[in-house]
Amino acid sequence: EAGVAQSPRYKIIEKRQSVAFWCNPISGHATLYWYQQILGQGPKLLIQFQNNGVVDDSQLPKDRFSAERLKGVDSTLKIQPAKLEDSAVYLCASSLAGTGGPYEQYFGPGTRLTVT
Amino acid sequence: RKEVEQDPGPFNVPEGATVAFNCTYSNSASQSFFWYRQDCRKEPKLLMSVYSSGNEDGRFTAQLNRASQYISLLIRDSKLSDSATYLCVVNRRAGNMLTFGGGTRLMVKP
Question: Which residues pair with A76 in a beta bridge?
Answer without folding.
Answer: A22, A68
